[in-house]
Structures are given as C-alpha cells and as structure tokens.
Amino acid sequence: MRPVITLITLGVTDLARARAFYAALGWRESSQSQEEVAFLQGAGTHLGLWSRTELAADSEVADDTGGWGGIPLAHTVGSTAEVDEVLAEAAAAGGTVLRPGTATFWGGYNGVFADPDGHRWEIAHNPAWPLDDAGRSQLPD
C-alpha cells in the first residue's frame, strides 16, 4: 500500500446542507458528484459527502450518532492569522467554533470547529511543517 489517502468520506444527515457548507468554505464539487453523493476537489486528498446511514451500512457498522467517531480532520495554514480567518469562515458558513485559535504546547497555533454534522476540524499553523505552493504540509524527515 502506498502511504496516500485519496478520499475522506463524511457521513452527513442533510446532504444539501453539507454541500452548501463546504461550498461556502471554498470546496469545489467534481463532475463525478451525483444526486446522492458529493465529491469535493482537494489538493491530492478529496472529500466525499454521503448519507450517514448509507455510509454506515457500506462500512459494516451501526449508525451510532451518540458518540465521537475518534477522527478529527486537520487543515494546516501558513500563519496564525489564517487560523483565525478559517475559523471565522466556518462560523459564517454555519459551523460551530469549538475552540478559538490559541497557542499550543508544541509551538504552533490552532483552533477547532465542527461542521453542521459535528465533524471536527482542527485548523492549525505549525511552523515546523512548511507548506508547498499547493498548500500541502511538508513533514520533516
């Protein structure tokens, strides 16, 4: 297996609402999207939006909406100001800021928001992980 994640699919309760939320954050839908599933263009890793019920069945798990799934998504930006800007964009689009931007113990700066379905996103600036021209973080060796 190559160490590449090509698609992360989020189970959503209202696909139209999820499409509108991510469009407001700048995600662009692919022509491969269909009525019941949206595929959003990323820089190498793409985002899928699909019915939470259908995704649970396809994944062979019970659709338990009562707990945290244990998988936060992360988006790295180039500055502390950008962390605050993205959190504000998420709030304006209908997300909930769970933790505003703050200095971290590891020398960076981050905050957390939830999309309308409760999926957690960490927005972080990590000075030890520089970004390339496409916005992909480069981990040190």
Look at the helices and sheets and give the structural class: alpha/beta
Strands of the widest sheet, in order across it, are 4-7-6-5
Radius of gyration: 16 Å
For the secondary structure, the number of strands is 7
Summarize the biggest pleated sheet. Answer: 4 strands, mixed
Q: From N to C, what is the helix and strand string? A: EHEEHEHEEE
Distance between the termini: 20 Å
Give the helix proportion (percent range). 10-25%
Structure write-up:
- 21% of the residues lie in helices and 28% in strands.
- It has 141 residues and is an alpha/beta fold.
- A four-stranded mixed sheet has the order 4-7-6-5, covered by helices on one side. The protein has a three-stranded mixed sheet with strand order 1-3-2.
- A hairpin with a 5-residue loop joins strand 5 and strand 6 (109-114).
- The two termini are 20 Å apart.
Main attributes of the structure:
141 residues, 28% strand, 7 strands, single chain, four-stranded mixed beta sheet
Gist?
With 141 residues, the chain is α/β, with parallel strands linked by helices. 21% of the residues lie in helices and 28% in strands.
